[in-house]
Amino acid sequence: MLKFPAPFPAAVFVCTNKRPDGSPKPCCADRGGVQLREELKQMARDQGLEGRVRIFASGCLGGCERGVVAVSYPKNELMFGVEREDLQKILDEAVG
To answer: In what order do the strands lie in the sheet with 77-79?
Structure first.
């Protein structure tokens, strides 16, 4: 295994997992995870933060019943019920 330092100091992973139709558990894709990730990514671009934070799509992070889930590194914060109103705060805390 080769290891290299990340070329950015912070990362946010937003769950975009899509469960099969009829699944008994909800999924972040159906709750807007894909759109929230795209919006957060665009906000980072618009604010000139591309070299300071990367926004990634993620598979299931658990906690599906609590709404869209995201995790921020290096702060190691797991966030549940992420909504559009939370995006700027998430971005500020990731680069702050």
So the answer is: 53-58, 10-15, 70-73, 77-79
